[in-house]
Every structure is written in structure tokens, then in C-alpha cells.
Amino acid sequence: MLRSIATFLCLRCQPVTALPLHLRSRATHSVAENQQTVEALYDLSVDIQKVRKLKGWVLLQSPAYTKEVAELLKNMGASGPIIAHILTSHPEAVLCNPEQIYTQKELWMSVCPNQRELVGVIEKFPASFFTSSSHHDNQRNNISYFQSLNLNKRVITKLMASAPQSFSRPVEQNELMVHTLQQAYQELGGEEANMKIWLQKLLSQNPFVLLKPPEVLRENFLFLRDKGFSTPQLLHLLSRLKGFVTELNPDSMRRTLLYSQDTIGCSETELRDIILRCPALLYYPESTLAERFEGLLSAGISMCQITATPTVLELTTQIVNYRVQQLKARGYDIRTGSLEVLNGTKKDFEMSFGKLQLRRERPLFNPVAPLKADD
């Protein structure tokens, strides 16, 4: 009796061979997941673990069109790694009906120069391409509207990619905002001949400007006018701020202007001049400005230097400190020199820094000094 019980327990306790990790993962989720989708994604080298972690609900859906979506992307010129990247970052794409995707492709190709560029857009903004079929009519109407404005195709493509919400809503809402922008430009003295270029730059810099209520623009200009800015100055600010003019609001601008005036110790007229040379001051909160003023002053830069070149306030404290150290290593004293060398993008600074280095290394040539001749 005891021997039979022992034999039974030994049989029950036999070691079980472990499944490989990817098979274990499949087995764990096999009850609810659509196995055809999972297998197709595996075949495409999609990161299934990442999909499960971030958007696991996609794997539960049926029907799914994984192979069809991949085939469409491949026919457009997408490589295997690019397809895998798109489906890993936006797995919802496999739930789009193939007919819906073909319609999307036709819409996008009406503004995209070629399929290669469209693949690049889809890789960066997959959610903008794989959208609901219920938006197709609005998309088509909005594309036609922006084309009627004679905007560059690449600008329209950028709008569709960066701010797809503006294309999925009724065209009348975009017409109203564009009309408000054009009206503001004309009322401030902008030339009709330059309006298209101005509008393109504005929309390129901030595509989300279309999603703002038109009233925001009017309120901001009324506030700035009350602060003493003339009509030509307002046009200058509108052109410099471009799309970011709708990101402002009177309350935040009021606090920023008060803080800047108190910190600099200047008159309202002087402050307006500083704002015109550095409009970005209008949208920085007090905390950001406080940190940047403190960083510049700690580096040995005077307030007079800051007001002479206010655009240095657009640089973070980390960037300023790095550039000051770089200049100091080359013998440039930022406390007595111009701050213009600090300004600009990384490329701008490297060019300015390179010129300083060449000037330091190049020997001065005096055309009047006699030439040394061999004896």
C-alpha cells in the first residue's frame, strides 16, 4: 500500500519542461488575445511585449487586418523595420479596415509630394494617418479649403500630421480662425501681397493655432494695445510671435510684464522696446524668468548687458553656463564683451565660437611693416 502511494506521488511530482519565454507569454494571454493578430505581429518583428504593456486591448480585438496593413505600407515603400516601428508605436493601425486605409492614402497623396514622404509622415505621426473613417468627409473638405488658400502642400501636410484634430472637425471652424488671423493682419497694416507667406509661416510654426478660439487673439491684442503698443508695433509682435500669439492670455502677460519691469528697473516705454526686441518675454512665466535672470547675473553679466541683448533670456541657464565656459576657455571675457556671441541656436553659437577661435589663432598682418628679407 505504502509503495503504491509513493509511486503515485513520484509520478505526480515529475518535473515539467519550461516553455520558452515568448511561448510562455503567448500561453498566458491565449485565452483572450486574438492569436492571428499576435502571430502576424510576431512575423513582422513587432515588439509584442511593448504592445501588451501599453496597448494590450488592441490584441483582444477582432477582426484585425495586420497583414493587409503591413502589405499596404510595404507597397508604399516602407521597409520591414519601419513597418515594425509603426505597428509597435501605434498598434491600433491593425484595426483599420483596408478600404478605410486606401481612402486615407488617397487623401494624403493629394497634398503629399510622393509615397516616400508619406511613409516618413506615417512613421512619425501614425495616429494622424490611421484615423476613423467618420472623419474622411471633414478631412476632404479641409484639404480643399487650405488648397484654396494656395498654401504650400508641405505646409498642409504638416498641419494634417501635427494637428489632425483641425482636419477632423467641420471646415467652418478653420475658416473662422483663418479669417480672424487674416483680419488681424490687415487691420494692423499688413500688406495683402505678403499675407499668404505670413499665414504659411504662422501655421508652420504652430499648427495648433487653428484649435484656439478666435476670441483669444482679439483679447491679447486689446491687452497689448492698452499697454501702449502702437499698431505697427502690434504687427511686429504678431509677425515675430507667429502662432504663439494665441498661446498667450492677458493675465499671464500682465504678471510677466510686471515682474520684468520690477527686475530690470525700467520704465514702461523701455520695457516695450525690450519686448519688441525679444517678444518671447511675453510668454515666459515669472519662475522661468527669475531663473534666467539669476543665471545670467551669476555668470557675471550685468543688467545693462541683458537689456542691450534681451534675446539671451531665451536661453536656458544650462546653455548659458556652458557657452560662457566655452568662451572663457578661449579667453573671451563675457563681462566686458558683447552678448551677441551667446545668442542663437547651437549651430549659430558654434559658428560664432569658431570665428573667435580663428581670430585668436590667426596672426595679425600689418601692411605697413617692412618685410623681413634674408641676408
UniProtKB/TrEMBL annotation:
Gene Ontology biological process terms, A to Z: termination of mitochondrial transcription
Keywords: Signal, Transit peptide
Transit peptide found in the keyword field: yes
Signal peptide: 1-18
Molecular function as annotated in GO: nucleic acid binding
Record has Transcription regulation as a keyword: no
GO cellular component, one term: mitochondrial matrix
InterPro entries according to UniProt: MTERF, MTERF_sf
Family, as annotated: Belongs to the mTERF family.
Protein name: Mitochondrial transcription termination factor 2
Taxonomic lineage: Eukaryota, Metazoa, Chordata, Craniata, Vertebrata
